[in-house]
Design brief:
With about 300 residues, the chain is an all-alpha fold. The protein contains 13 helices and no strands. It is flat, with a radius of gyration of 23 Å.
Length: about 300
């Protein structure tokens, strides 16, 4: 006999009523504030749509040149630039260019928002053990809870569309940049901080002229992981109506079209590798630069 079948009927009734009460309160919250929340996110929706349209409307030779220049600026590796050009040409040749641009737009916007949100939170965590004790469990939940669980309230509030998909990506992708910003600042050598104190630096000056520059390699490693996790979420985001390579993978699953799934999946992998190698090389350059200045 199950342990739960031995509970008194009143206890089980109270539990059901408690669940219904939570559901009812959330529905009341949506009715009261749902429209205001949608209006709050409208500027973000317009920006994301504008950015998607910009990438799609840009002629592919121009877009390819821009991507190659960005990869070169970040990596200073001619081999990586050539590999990027070949990968993007193959994506275009196989008819996935437009979907790749949608995916690039979503990943870029999600990463920028994660950076804007994550770095300040990481800084606060590095300055206060109490803040760290509060935020760390939240980050643990964000990284471990199944995506479909937090999709439920997002869909109930905002429905299906770009913004719900973007929010789902951000929830999953923001923890690494928060954690590694906190870690990077905390790992700054105390002798360097004492030297800054001896020169009369204020806490703000120490943060921006000493701690942040020395923590940049760790912070950029967090950005790298955030990008990877954002790309990993594109298929889940497609469930909310987000266009791109993830949606094509979802279509392949539904239609059992293995070639379509593999092609779009490999395109996501190619984009992830380009992002990963470029950000890693840029992080290493920052680290070498930091060691030269402070070494």
């Amino acid at each position: 006999m199950s342990l739960f079948t031995e509970f008194p009927e009143m206890t089980r009734t109270e539990l059901r009523d408690f669940k219904k009460g939570i559901d009812g309160s959330f529905k009341d919250f949506i009715h009261a504030y749902g429209e205001s929340i949608e209006n709050f996110f409208k500027p973000l929706l317009h920006f994301l749509k504008w950015f998607e349209d910009l990438l799609v409307a840009t002629p592919w030779p121009v877009m390819l040149a821009i991507i190659a220049l960005l990869v070169w600026a970040g990596s200073r590796s001619i081999g990586l630039v050539i590999g990027t050009i070949i990968s993007m040409l193959l994506i275009g040749y196989l008819g996935m260019w437009e979907d790749a641009m949608f995916t690039l737009a979503l990943t870029t916007v999600a990463t920028l928002i994660c950076i804007v949100i994550g770095i300040p939170i990481g800084i606060l965590m590095s300055k206060s053990d109490r803040v760290q004790a509060v935020v760390t469990p939240i980050l643990d939940v964000m990284q471990t809870i199944p995506a479909f669980v937090y999709l439920i309230p997002i869909v109930m509030i905002l429905g299906i569309g770009l913004v719900p998909g973007l929010i789902a990506v951000i929830i999953y992708a923001v923890p690494p940049v928060v954690r590694l910003t906190n870690l990077g600042i905390r790992l700054v050598d105390t002798d360097i901080l004492e030297a800054a104190d001896a020169f009369g630096a204020s806490p703000t000056q120490k943060l921006w002229t000493v701690q942040m520059p020395l923590a940049l390699p760790n912070i950029f490693a967090g950005v790298n992981q955030t990008i990877m996790m954002a790309l990993a979420m594109v298929v889940v985001a497609s469930l909310l109506g987000v266009h791109g390579l993830g949606l094509e993978v979802l279509k392949a699953v539904n239609s059992q079209y293995i070639t379509l799934g593999f092609m779009n999946g490999l395109a996501i992998v190619a984009i992830a590798i380009v992002f990963d190698r470029t950000s890693q090389k840029f992080g290493k350059r920052l680290q070498r630069h930091s060691e030269v200045i402070h070494g």
